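Quick one, T. Sequence first:
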Amino acid sequence: MKSIALPVIAAVAGLTFSTPVASASDQAVPRRPNPAAPSCGGTFSVFYLGSKPVNDVFSVRIYYSDMYRWTQGQGGTIDYTASSGQSFDGYNANPSGGSSVIDNVPSTFVGTWHAYVYRIDGTNACIAEFDVAHDTPPKSH
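Structure tokens:
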């Protein structure tokens, strides 16, 4: 059985979150975005607010729900693409929902992002579009 990602899991209000861990088997099933894949609908929110940038990088937690209907209950993988075109690939797609924590995001990578949800067999199940911003401190006068 192919391992998509080894999740680091923690309970957060009954949800799980994961960080990607690449393995040699990740290359066995290629994942390619399919522009004809349906929208993920309400699986993702329309906006996510990340942390305050430190040394020009920030972190953002992207919550999702009801992944079961897209991954056919088997889990899968989520690849994220930032507004800059930079990819953050290989996040665990928990069928019951959860979140992905993306760290070390350059502070300029705000704007429209995309999530590509893949089934275990590499099929692009759905695509989501949402906005990401970081928390900026108020300007002093």
